[in-house]
Amino acid sequence: MQRRTLSPPSRVDGSQLFNLITEANGQLKAARESQNLNHGRNSTAYLRTLTKAAEYFPQGTFSAELGDKAGFFQEDSLHLHTELCWALSGLPRDNNGDWPQMAVHAYEGLQNQVYNMWYHGFEEQKEKREFTEMVSRVTNELAKAELITKDTAPREGLVNSPRQGMGRVAFLFTYALNLDHKSSSVMNVERDWRQRCGDFNLHLQ
After folding, report:
1. Alpha carbon 102 to chain centroid distance?
2. Which of 108, 24, 106 is nearest to 73 (CA)?
3. Looking at the record's lineage, which domain of life comes first (predicted)?
4. What are the extents of the domains in the chain?
């Protein structure tokens, strides 16, 4: 995947990036609801949206690369989709939008699609478990956490700051996809995200 190397992240157009991430979330939703999840041609538009969004950033910004098996709800594409949400959160507020906070909403949109895929998309428990493991690996190990905003100022009417909000949603990728919320693995992930992003409120934005 070729990326431009000219503009620093601070010059990225937040409006266009937010729109592309929102479009990608919608493409996941449409594919899931239509059960049109085959790899290859069906996911071409989705992968093109992710690639177009990534091209706004300098080469080396992301650790994700789209391989031959990338597609709807696959590891490579979820990895890049996650990092795009995190990178959007790292943009400064400007006259067009509060990108750190809007990134939290975009990331929640991705989390909702992943949860619904987990809840509705698998008949076999083995498949469900493998999907959970993949999502956890992407969110908690592979994706580049330094992309997440450093903005710790809560917005009016909200409990969590953008950084806390991103940590909250990141933890939800593990919390919501595990039936045992008190398991040591889930609690360890919660601890790690609280240490990384601040002591977020899990049940309120």
Report:
1. 13
2. 24
3. Eukaryota
4. 9-197
Per-residue pLDDT band for 99 (boundaries 50, 70, 90) equals: very high
Residue type, position 60, single letter: G
Rounded to 5 degrees, what are φ and ψ at 42? Answer: -60, -30
Report d(CA 183, CA 11) in Å as an integer: 43
> Using an 8 Å Cβ cutoff, are 103 and 166 in contact?
yes
Residue type at 108 in one-letter notation: E
One-letter amino acid identity for 59? Q
**Long-range contacts, stretch 1-8, CB < 8 angstroms, 24+ apart:** 1/51, 1/54, 1/55, 1/65, 1/66, 2/55, 3/54, 3/55, 3/57, 3/58, 3/59, 3/61, 4/55, 4/56, 4/57, 4/58, 4/59, 5/58, 5/59, 6/58, 7/56, 7/58, 8/58
Determine the distance from the C-alpha atom of residue 100 to the mean position of all C-alpha atoms in its chain, rounded to a whole number.
13
